[in-house]
């Protein structure tokens, strides 16, 4: 399974999506900072499973319709930062989709996630990550989970990784930094948390019109598990 996650930077990079999906034969596409009303229902063979509707800059998940079926979707409004309360860019910061592999019948959960911006504390982002993973576990108890997106967490990732492991999940970074706009804040912003999923690699793709670089996750479902809690 190949998954692309891309923060479109206020929808500026939306015109790149068709070529991006085709070039990397993506099976799933997870978007952040998309204008939902301007998203097509299909992109290079991927069908729109769901897009948030209460966000000024929203989330979306696409899937290859001849490989996966979207069984159920769920959005989650997470604890707000001061930035969210004043500017209201995003009401819903997690969009999860329960999918079924058409050929093999296995189900799994994939989610697009966008944490609070850098004006918020890391402690708030950790709570958002924890809440999002907990919500996904109720959408499909015991199912593999892959949550990708913009975590806005450039520093102290070692501490975050340990907290993620303590909760039963794994945090995986890409092979190169994913954000380049401000020199001081450059680093790995876009990555994955998972359980029940073997991540072979996460590759940072070339930069386009966004200040975030897209990432390509090459993963497969692990043997069936009993479940985990955040």
From TrEMBL:
Domain of life of the organism encoding this protein: Bacteria
Keywords carried by this UniProt record: Endonuclease, Hydrolase, Nuclease
Domain spans labelled Endonuclease/exonuclease/phosphatase: 4-184
Matches recorded under Pfam families: Exo_endo_phos
Single GO molecular function: endonuclease activity
The protein's name: Endonuclease/exonuclease/phosphatase family protein
Organism: Candidatus Microbacterium phytovorans
